[in-house]
Amino acid sequence: MLSEKQKLTKIINLGIEISQVKDIDVLLERILLEARKLVNADAGSIYIKEVDKLKFSYTQNDTLQKRLPSGKKLIYATFSIPINNQSISGYVANNGTMLNIPDAYKLRSGLPYSFNKSYDDLSGYRTQSMLTFPLKTNRGDTVGVLQLINGKDARGKAVPFSKKDEPLIMHFANTAAVAIERAQLTRAMILRTIKMAELRDPKETGAHVNRVASYAVTIYEHWAASHGVSREEIDKNRDVLRMSAMLHDVGKVAISDTILKKPARFTPEEYEIMKGHTYMGARLFTDLYSEFDEAASVVALNHHERWDGGGYPGHINPYDGSTVPGFGDASGKPRGKKGVETPLFGRVVSVADVYDALCSRRVYKEPWDEARVLENLKEASGTQFDPEMADAFFSSLDAVHSISERYPDY
Question: What structural domains and CATH numbers belong to the chain?
Answer without folding.
Answer: 4-182 (3.30.450.40), 201-406 (1.10.3210.10)
